[in-house]
Design brief:
Low-confidence stretches: none
Distance between the termini: 36 Å
Bound molecules: pyridoxal-5'-phosphate
Largest sheet: 7 strands, mixed
CATH superfamily of the largest domain: Type I PLP-dependent aspartate aminotransferase-like (Major domain)
CATH class of the largest domain: Alpha Beta
CATH architecture of the largest domain: 3-Layer(aba) Sandwich
Number of strands: 15
Length: about 400
């Protein structure tokens, strides 16, 4: 696929990096940067409330951004799409917006980002829900048998299956459609953490048959501080908001609050309007791409990374051996050179930016005893074969010099 590197000012700089930390945050195209600037320079008003020209312009642009996002993920109605601060906020809105009884079972996998683990742990501590972990296969792929067994063992108490579509630890994709069918057969809801899937592949909430989807706009070429939450309207309509105040009510008296319908109920306080408008620009940008081609390109780059690092001494790939099972993520346990040292040297010596550490999946690393974490390179559509080769070659040199 065409890399469209000219669209990204960061990549046009002299000494532009080989940016391979896309699982954390992606670079921004000029159209997104322009959308932010335009809001602040031309119509920095308040959407949804003020009726003057600035207010009306912002209201229209926010509505249009919501519509674009809604179409991108296959939602039936833009009212099902909530602007949030990030995927963490979205997941918290689901977890703390529902009503729970002690003993209600929530299932996650054993390789969740803290954002899809800690909210459930908090509910366990504070409200007595029963959070259970479904173990993965040895190579981190999803174990359907273990999942079905866990659903059955819940004995009618299964209320929620909350799993990441694609893991940020290893790039492994879960068979969400099959998971949703089994979960629904057991009477549970399905909340998918799509932070690592929506930027990299076609995600259609109807086709997946899920109930909630959380995602990070900043991993989708969009601005920092923006995320999204999609939910089936009737489910959103039953959720309590975790941030009540302005915008969240249709009216109030000294003694009562009349809750506004979704999505306003969940968008309390003055919104990040430039962020919402720039989200529209980011999603319009992604919508022009062929997301299947994006995924294929990332796998192609991962084949190059994998071939270059798989036999390095003291280096072990997390997840399936075949890069096709890991999307654009190449996450490496570093047994001889510490991951942080390697990450620093990759940038210093060759301008290659990757991530090191536990990537907010502490539970998996702690459980396996890999407390140093991993070195993770994560590719996106604008990355080139030369860049990933540079990553592999430089790591080869580092390992052979320091290992
Ligand atoms: C799988 C996964 N879930 C959740 C998150 C949290 O996303 P955010 O930073 O948007 O809250 C991340 C971020 O890296 C992630 O990779």
């Amino acid at each position: 696929m065409k890399q469209r590197r000219d669209d990204f000012p960061t990549l046009l700089q002299e000494h532009a990096p080989a940016y391979l930390d896309n699982a954390c945050v992606t670079l921004k195209p000029q159209t997104v940067i322009d959308a932010i600037t335009e809001y602040y320079t031309q119509h920095p008003g308040c959407g949804g409330r003020s009726v003057h020209r600035y207010g009306t312009k912002v209201s229209r642009m926010v509505a249009s951004a919501r519509q674009t996002l809604s179409t991108f993920i296959g939602a039936h109605d833009p009212k099902e799409v909530v602007f949030t601060r990030n995927a963490t906020h979205s997941i918290n809105q689901i977890a703390h917006g529902m009503s729970w009884s002690p003993g209600d079972v929530v299932l996650t996998t054993d390789r969740e980002h803290n954002s899809n683990l800690v909210p459930w742990l908090q509910l366990e501590q504070e409200q007595g829900i029963d959070h259970r972990v479904v173990p993965s296969h040895e190579n981190n792929t999803f174990d359907m048998e273990a999942f079905e067994a866990a659903c059955a063992e819940a004995n009618g108490r299964l209320k929620m299956v909350a799993m990441s579509h694609v893991g940020n630890l290893d790039g492994v994709t879960l068979p969400i459609k099959d998971i949703a069918k089994v979960a629904h057969d057991h009477g549970a809801l399905v909340a998918v953490d799509g932070a690592q899937s929506t930027p990299h592949m076609n995600v259609d909430v109807q086709d997946l048959g899920i109930d909630f989807l959380s995602f990070s706009i900043h991993k989708m070429c969009g601005p920092s501080g923006m995320g999204g939450l999609w939910g089936r309207y009737e489910l959103l309509d039953q959720l309590r908001t975790i941030q009540s105040g302005g915008q969240t009510v249709s009216s109030s008296t000294y003694t009562d609050a009349m809750w506004a319908p979704p999505p306003g109920r969940f968008e309390g306080g003055l919104g990040n309007f430039s962020g919402m408008i720039a989200t529209g620009a980011a999603i319009e940008y992604l919508a022009q791409l062929d997301m299947d081609a994006v995924h294929e390109h990332e796998v192609k780059l991962n084949r190059i990374m994998t071939a270059g690092v798989k036999d390095l001494p003291g280096v072990e790939i997390i997840g399936p051996k075949d890069p096709a099972g890991r999307g654009g993520i190449c996450s490496l346990l570093m047994h001889s050179v510490p991951a942080h040292d390697a990450a620093l040297l990759l940038d210093e010596a060759a301008g290659v930016m990757v991530r090191s550490g536990q990537h907010c999946v502490h539970s998996w690393f702690e459980n396996k005893g890999y407390t140093e974490g991993s070195l993770r390179a994560s590719a996106y559509f604008y990355n080139t074969e030369e860049e990933v080769k540079l990553f592999a070659d430089t790591l080869d040199e580092i390992v052979h010099t320091m290992g």
